[in-house]
Amino acid sequence: MEKPPTILFRHELGPIAQSNEGKLIVYPGVILHMECLWIRRFGIPKWTIGHNHRQYPQSWTTDPGRDSQLEYRLSIYYASKEDSGLFTCETPARYMHSVEVIVKAVHCPHIPKRRGLTASTEDTKMSTHVTFNCENGNALTGPSEIVCLPSGNWNSSFPICESVECGEVGGLVSTNLTMKVIARDIGGRAVFSCAPGYSLQGPQETTCLSNGDWATPFPSCVEVQCENPKSPENGFYHGTGAFKVGDVVQYNCNTDYVMEGQSVSACQDSGRWSGTLPKCIPACSYPGTTISGKMSSVKFYYKMGENITFSCENNLVLKGASMLKCLKNGKWSNTIPTCEAPNSNQS
């Protein structure tokens, strides 16, 4: 009771702020309530004003949530420059507390346009808080938030946005791994590949992060191997594993079988063998030679259903079947014919 009263400030429709000198800076148009704290049953405080611009309503507060037994209010409605002056609350015990009010439209300097920098507002009014961000993930250098002070200055300098790029990568997991950079800025990509004969294990690409690092983990390169190839039925292959990319195997058929398809296959980058597995089908072997005769086709093996024909030379006469057919069992349909002199069977 025996000390200067406390004064609380409540405001609407605009900002207020206290200067370094202790003055209350009020933006024009603001509704300002100054509440002098005093226990009501001990009497009524008195507000005095250092000018005669106009009369100001004074009363115990009746607002919801306020204490009508403690807060004696003076209100300035829609403050103007002429309302500036000294406002003093004096208690019945003759203790006083004065507040110098200055109604002034305080603005801070305009917020500059800077490349990549975005501000939460363009307002420069006193007490305005401005937050900053950078576009495209660039790095913010300087404060992320500034405030307009009652002095008309920002509390800090304006930030800038600096471009962030991801650099070269050293010490890749695999010596056979290569990395091709598509773009180095934030969100940029780099793709991985392996040397021939190696397979990529892990992510196929990485992204440049906002801290200037490439996203991890990186992949590795594993040597490609093909499984042992299958042997064709009634056949076999030449070659021994482990089979690496570029290794070749050769297929062969057992005796009395002929190959249908490619006789060689190569281990590919995909880990698979090239082509399709050949087939070994039953065949007839070379039937033999007819003395003084000719065959329509001479080769080591003949496919099932294949025909060969015979003829004689030097006016000799063919004795036997003139055509032989290779049957499904790998046998010829007949024995080979002979070439004989005319009338060789006559006595």
What can you see in these coordinates?
The N and C termini lie far apart (167 Å). The chain has a 5-stranded mixed sheet with strand order 2-3-9-8-5, with no helix packed on it. The chain has 5 domains: 7-103, Immunoglobulin-like (Sandwich), CATH 2.60.40.10; 117-162, Complement Module, domain 1 (Ribbon), CATH 2.10.70.10; 177-223, Complement Module, domain 1 (Ribbon), CATH 2.10.70; 226-282, Complement Module, domain 1; 285-340, Complement Module, domain 1, CATH 2.10.70.10. The chain is rod-shaped. The protein has strands at 7-12, 16-18, 24-26, 31-37, 46-49, 58-60, 71-76, 85-90, 96-103, 117-119, 129-134, 139-141, 145-147, 160-162, 177-181, 189-194, 198-201, 205-207, 220-223, 225-226, 235-238, 243-244, 248-253, 257-260, 264-266, 279-285, 293-295, 301-303, 307-312, 317-319, 323-325, 338-340. With 347 residues, it is mainly β. Helix content is 0%, strand content 39%. The mean pLDDT is 90. Strand 2 and strand 3 form a beta hairpin. The chain is built from no helices and 32 strands. Residues 106-163, 164-223, 224-282, 283-341 form the Sushi domain. Disulfide bonds join 134-161, 194-221, 253-280, 312-339. Keywords: Disulfide bond, Glycoprotein, Repeat, Signal, Sushi.
Neighbour order of strands in the largest sheet: 2-3-9-8-5
**Low-pLDDT residue intervals, each spanning 5 or more residues:** none
Secondary structure: helix percent: under 10%
Taking the sheet with the most strands, its summary is: 5 strands, mixed
Q: Between the first and last Cα atoms, what is the distance in angstroms?
A: 167 Å
- Tell me the strand percentage band: 35-45%
Q: What is the rounded Rg?
A: 52 Å
Overall form: rod-shaped
CATH class of the largest domain: Mainly Beta
By CATH's scheme, which homologous superfamily of the largest domain applies? Immunoglobulins
**Total tally of structural domains:** 5
Count of helical regions: 0
> What is the average per-residue confidence, as pLDDT, rounded to a whole number?
90
CATH topology of the largest domain: Immunoglobulin-like
Query: What is the name of the CATH architecture of the largest domain?
Result: Sandwich
Secondary structural class: mainly beta
The count of DSSP E runs of length 2 or more, i.e. the number of strands, is 32
